[in-house]
Amino acid sequence: MGALCYDLGFDETRAGQAALIVTELATNLCKHTAGKGGELIFRPFEEGGALGIDILSLDKGPGIVNMTQSLCDGYSSAGSAGNGLGAINRRSSVFDFFSMPGKGCALFSRLWKDLPPALPPALTVGAVCLPVHGEEACGDAWAMRAGRKGAVFMLADGLGHGPDAAVAANLAVSIFEKNALRTPQELLTLIHSGLRGTRGAAVVVAEVSLETHVVRFAGVGNISALIRSGETSIPLISYNGTAGVEARKIRETSTPWPEDALLILHSDGLATQGALFKDYPGLVHKEAALIAGVLFRDYQRVRDDSTVIVIQKTRPSTKP
Q1: Which of 103, 122, 167, 197 sits 20 to 30 Å CA-CA off 315?
Q2: Whether the predicted pLDDT of 140 surpasses 60
Q3: Average of per-residue pLDDT across 148-165
Q4: For all residues of the chain together, what is the average pLDDT?
């Protein structure tokens, strides 16, 4: 965490706050997970020109029965001073949580380097993208280009994992970033051509329009995409093939984007089998980053790189 704060230019005060948040979260994982432990995930974050750090704490312990009570200073179920979660909440620019008895707890904290964006974006994005255990190079990669009228996203899953998969996925990101103003079908066609000579990748491109309330989508390979609205999940269709190797059909579709909808993209490093959000009451109303963290925690395959991206319309802050 210290190296990340240094790289982003955090001052001493902000770096100290980040260290405190991570220390408290790590302490909670040691004390409250019934020996099961958990994961701390953090990544740099940029929004509207403002820099920050996103921190996720994920565990599969006994969970917290009354999270609101646990945020109050002085409350503890482990005989401690009971100031940890309250301290995390106070120091976080954004804080959210999701917990179910017997199914673990997920906590999300965002800390801005300086001030938050003067004008919040229309869409909020949360993502987890990590290599398979034991690898430093991640064969998954994603990118986005956002504006006030919407955003376009690309997710690439290089064939297999390791450095060669990372070459293909990162090349897809480079092609996307140079051509992000094109349509999803045009972008995917360019990526397919540009990945020839690599081992290839599954690739999807999704454009969310806040003017037409439509998602335009094009995909090749086994990356899953769906729109979640209320209790309904609408799958977005990717065609068989591998970008850079063989893609017999590259076709763009348009699907309505309801006011309350989520757009979820994930690589096959998540084995959901269509069960997203089953038995997770209220999760769809949480911060996008927290949703992504819970899905990663519960559906990741331990033998592959894993990526999940959650896109939602920006909502008013619900920080406790």
Answers
A1: 103
A2: yes
A3: 94
A4: 89
The C-alpha atoms of residue 123 and residue 146 are separated, in whole angstroms, by: 8
Q: Strands of 150-158's sheet, edge to edge?
A: 140-147, 150-158, 201-209, 214-220, 253-256
Question: Kind and range of the H or E element at 7?
Answer: helix 2-8
Containing H/E element for 19?
helix 12-32
Class of domain 123-313: alpha beta
The number of CA neighbours under 13 Å toward the Cβ of 165 is 21
Residue range 2-112 forms a domain whose CATH class is alpha beta
**Token pair for 212:** 């037409």
Same fold, 2-112 and 123-313: no
Closest CA to 127 of 162, 99, 154: 154
- pLDDT band for position 35 (50/70/90)? confident
Higher pLDDT among residues 24 and 120, named by residue: 24
Q: Name the residue ranges covered by the structural domains of the chain.
A: 2-112, 123-313
SS3 157: strand
pLDDT, position 63 = 82
| Contact of 100 with 262, CB cutoff 8 Å | no
